[in-house]
Design brief:
The protein contains 25 helices and 17 strands. By secondary structure, the protein is α+β, with helices and mostly antiparallel strands. α5 runs parallel beside α8 and α9 packs across α13. The longest helix is centred in the N-terminal third of the chain and has 33 residues.
Length: 674
């Protein structure tokens, strides 16, 4: 009786539902619209098998889950933010814990019941549909209901706790979403700071994992990245933690703090530094991005300016006025600047040993070059097991450690390409599995010319080629292999005979593993491309087969000989007689300080974007030579390039590029004459 009268006061309950019940009704209607109505009316000729209901309009569902619970938290506790309503409610014959309990109970009903009703209706729709657009099991329905309940509860309780610490409703809502985005902003921009100032810092997983730190960003990935149990456990634990925190904070909140920006003195320095440090990072990142090449000090200017603006902005928000000058303003600013400076400096300081650390070969169990790989299956991006990508070959490990040691011993710049004029700047991503079970990662951008010997030692090992060129896939079964000319997509053949497929895979693997370092660096385009088709890993019979692509380079003699023997080479080779003429357009590239990519571009010739004179020839010798050499796109600051168009008698045309040094004597003679 006492519990019903005090903790679940019927008068306040009825008043809450009469005044704010529309939030729960709208939440229910939007959820019904975004899930059961969507899957019930969607039509697909071939049903799509999904492993999560968030793959069906999940972005909209998450949008509702991060807005309606926040609205419920703001409106239910709106009385705390206004002077007169705050005095009225706190003058009622109820203790604060009773008042908080009845409002929390109202909020739980408003945000959880719509989720549960939607889950039940979705189950009913799933059971009665004869021709569904999506196929899934009952566990997916329960998982959706559990996930949405946890997300909604987390957002509601976060809003309540923030509302107790904040004295204005608008600022309360902004702070809630600011808290959700702050971990991503701080992590992402702080990672840029480490990338710019810490040699070897590995930043591969920033973009992929950042979305998991915030429900706001989760909207963009919920349909392709599965909801994992660890994620739900964290959100549930935080939601449960917020409940006792709400009681503690509410018991200590003063009634007269209504309309104040920050209601607790202890929260003010946290808010001030958090706001300031975020702008410190943003300012440093922005000034670094706009800094002229080879300039120094721009990032420091950005940090200082961001800190000043951030501190002043935080003071204005807290005091609700721009008149913030006091004698204590500057000393406090200096204190916060020192603290922010230490946070920025300590991780990148030389004395912490991060940049110079190279593991001893005796402490390395295995090693991998390259980052993580992902595969798209059943509508979800899944990380591939990288166990097979690691190698414990002593020669391979020794070669990589030697490369790593030289990188550490060499004074390399941390930003900008090391040598923009060099076609072969190398991205080196090293993963060590150490004997203590930890994984040590390092990432570098190095000039090939300076590390030629060390790179050659690494890239000529079979373990490197096995992973870099996916030769491990050639050991697996294949349904068929499609071959397509690099010049003409219309010239293609298929190999489906099991014996021929086996022979082709074996020869391809041998040619790849026998490549020299110079052949791997070859600037010439491949003769053709091979597409290996395998059975899909997906349990969905309508999912497409898995496909793996391999280049057939001009240096692959075994494969090219096999193609000739099996009468397939000529079907891929473009005959000279099919080409009527070739057009040349010269391009002079001179962009010192700003390297650009150069690649074959049809607009450069057909659109005459350069305005340069076009030179045409019907010389069959020249055309034959062009068919044997097509340069891949490359990056440069200063060069002379020829854009070339091969005009076919029938069908499509072919575009390519050659550097001036690639031209034969006959080509130079034709160009010189005109």
């Amino acid at each position: 009786m006492i519990f019903n009268r005090l903790f679940c006061n019927r008068g306040i309950l009825f008043q809450n539902f009469r005044q704010h019940g529309w939030i729960g009704i709208l939440y229910l209607l939007t959820l019904l619209f975004s899930l059961p109505l969507y899957i019930g009316t969607e039509y697909r000729e071939v049903p799509q098998q999904i492993t999560s209901l968030f793959q069906a309009n999940g972005e909209l569902q998450i949008l509702f889950a991060i807005t309606f619970p926040v609205a419920a938290g703001i409106f239910l506790f709106r009385y705390m933010q206004s002077g007169a309503p705050s005095d009225l409610f706190h003058s009622l014959p109820l203790q604060r814990k009773h008042l908080l309990t009845v409002n929390l109970l109202t909020g739980f009903v408003m945000i959880l019941v719509p989720v549960w009703i939607t889950t039940a209706i979705t189950g009913w729709v799933w059971a009665v549909l004869d021709q569904p657009a999506y196929t899934f099991g009952g566990s997916e329905i329960w998982m959706w209901g559990l996930s949405m309940s946890i997300y909604s509860l987390f957002m509601f309780m976060l809003t309540v706790v923030v509302g107790i610490c904040i004295g204005q409703s608008v600022l309360q809502g902004l702070t809630v979403y600011g808290i959700l985005l702050m971990p991503v902003v701080v992590w992402f921009i702080f990672s840029l700071h480490l990338q710019n100032h810490l040699l070897g810092y590995s930043y591969e997983d920033i973009g992929f994992n950042a979305e998991k730190l915030s429900l706001v960003l989760r909207m963009g990935s919920i349909s392709t990245a599965p909801v994992i149990r660890g994620e739900l456990i964290i959100y549930l634990a935080l939601a449960i933690l917020f409940i006792p925190l709400a009681y503690v904070f509410y018991a200590k909140r003063q009634v007269e703090s209504a309309t104040q920006a920050i209601t607790f003195r202890i929260v003010k320095p946290i808010f001030r530094f958090g706001f300031m440090f975020t702008l410190v990072l943003v300012g440093g990142a922005y000034f670094t991005s706009i800094a002229p090449r080879a300039s120094v000090g721009w990032d420091i200017c950005g940090y200082v300016l961001g800190g000043i603006v951030g501190y002043i902005g935080a003071e204005m928000i807290i005091r609700k006025t721009w008149l913030i000058w006091t004698s204590r303003l500057v000393p406090k600013l200096v204190l916060y600047v020192i603290l922010a400076g230490l946070i920025l400096y300590v991780p990148v300081a030389d004395w912490n040993g991060y940049a110079a650390r190279v593991p001893d070969i005796s402490k390395v169990n295995s090693i991998k070059l390259g980052g993580d790989r992902y595969i798209y299956s059943n509508g979800i991006n899944q990380k591939l097991d990288d166990g097979s990508f690691y190698s414990n070959d002593p020669e391979y490990i020794e070669a990589i450690i030697a490369l790593h040691q030289k990188i550490v011993d060499t004074d390399l710049p941390l930003r900008d390409p090391v040598n923009p004029d060099d076609d072969y700047d190398e991205n080196v991503f090293i993963n060590y599995k150490l004997e203590n079970g930890r994984v040590m990662k390092r990432r570098y951008n190095i000039p090939e010319t300076e590390f030629h010997k060390e790179l050659m030692a690494v890239k000529q090992t079979k373990d490197y080629k096995r992973v870099a060129y996916d030769t491990f896939k050639l050991d697996e079964d294949a349904l068929s292999i499609g071959l397509r000319s690099s010049l003409s997509p219309f010239r293609k053949v298929y190999i489906s005979n099991p014996e021929q497929v086996r022979e082709f895979k074996e020869l391809m693997k041998q040619d790849i593993l026998d490549q020299t370092y110079e052949e791997q660096r070859s600037p010439w385009q491949s003769f053709a491309y091979a597409e290996m088709n395998q059975n899909s890993r997906s349990s969905d019979p309508y999912q497409p087969k898995e496909m793996w692509n391999f280049d057939i380079k001009p240096s692959y003699e075994r494969v090219l000989t096999w193609l000739r023997e099996n009468k397939l080479y000529d079907q891929l080779q473009v005959p000279v007689d099919e080409i009527a003429s070739a057009q040349f357009v010269k391009q002079e590239i001179d962009s010192q300080g700003k390297a650009k990519w150069v690649y074959s571009d049809s607009d450069y010739i057909d659109g005459n974007s350069s305005g340069n004179k076009q030179i045409a020839t019907k010389n069959k010798k020249i055309i034959s030579d062009l068919l044997q050499r097509q340069r891949s796109g490359y990056r440069t600051e200063k060069d002379t390039v020829y854009h070339i168009k091969l005009n076919f008698i029938r069908g499509e045309n072919v575009y390519m590029i050659l550097k001036e040094e690639d031209l034969t004597q006959e080509m130079k003679a034709i160009l010189a004459e005109q």
